[in-house]
Amino acid sequence: MSLKAKRALIVVGVCSALVCGGKVPGLKDPPAVVMVSETAGKNPFKEVQLFRNAEYVEEVESSAKLHPEMATTIRKVEQYPTALWLDTIARVAELPGWLDQAKQQQAQSGQPTLSVIVLCNLPNRDCAANASAGELAVEAGGEERYRKEFVDPIAAQFAARPDQPIVAIVEPDSLANLATNLAVPKCAASVDAYRHSIIYAIQRFQLPNVSIYLDAAHAGWLGWDVNRERMAVVFRKLLQEAGGYHMIRGFATNVSNFTHLYNRDGAALALTNPCLNELQYVKMLANTLSDYGIKGKGFIIDTSRNGKGGIRKSWGSWCNVKGAGLGERPRAEPVRGIDAYLWIKPPGESDGVSDPTQPRFDGMCAGRDALAGAPQAGKWFDAYFVDLVRNADPPL
Predict the structure, then answer these.
(1) Are strands 113-119 and 49-50 parallel, antiparallel or unpaired?
(2) Which of 7, 87, 149, 226 has a CA positioned 20 to 30 A from the CA of residue 375?
(3) pTM value?
């Protein structure tokens, strides 16, 4: 299907900033990426503070103590918020404590405190990789357990706290597999479970204090025209079944990935991909979604590890990529059409174990782009965190 005529989702300014992949000299932030519809509601990241997780501060502090020569710089990271990940049923029990802490921060500051919660526990989760494979299997009643033991108690906690703003980022590395990886048997067997489970979560989270963002991969996965169109078809069908396009605030991109906001990495990594960077990808994805009826949505971009460009030999490398640095700091509406830059992936937590003898090993975590010595996914990787701090851009 050919794209329709481009609408009002345009870049304001010259092409060198986003369309051509460069950065305009002397311009601190790139110009507008997309136009967000007024019917999409208020940007949930405006006029709030973001929750700072005490557990993450402790992890950062452990590295500060190990590296006294860098301790002052390392401790600067403690001031920045990160998302909270629910990736097992057992971990749902931690959610009330997190929300209690957020309420305390809210009471102390007198300003609404926004908690960003990532759901990452689909049946047959991450069907095209091993490092982050989940606990629920489709063939073992995973869909029912996901609804009753995972989504329902999360929704109950959200509903019990109507005075606390919450953003729910729903299932990274999930729906994009339905656009590109159906040749993988596990992905082909997961289509219905993915769709039903995410629709259920969307419907259960229809609460006044909750804003929902669906994961939309990144430039190096869905940047090609054909992939963006396939993704738009997946989103259109899912949202129609869920009850309408209005059911979500928008989309999250670059989650746990490394694609730079505005340099020309894509020109070297994939000559056929028209999206050279993440901001250009968001603009072009917004256009494609609009062509399929999904208009005016907001976007959030994970900038936790995309401060440095030119660090990968392959755009498909996703595991503990060497040379990465902390990226733009979390903030609301850095560019018109971008609801926020966020540190969705807590910087310093491993993507996957690099030892091939260990469970859940994925070859990508021992590849040429990956840093050796990595622990299991989600565990603190001190050496990697220190590199992120050293390579931070903007510097800490």
Answers:
(1) parallel
(2) 149
(3) 0.91
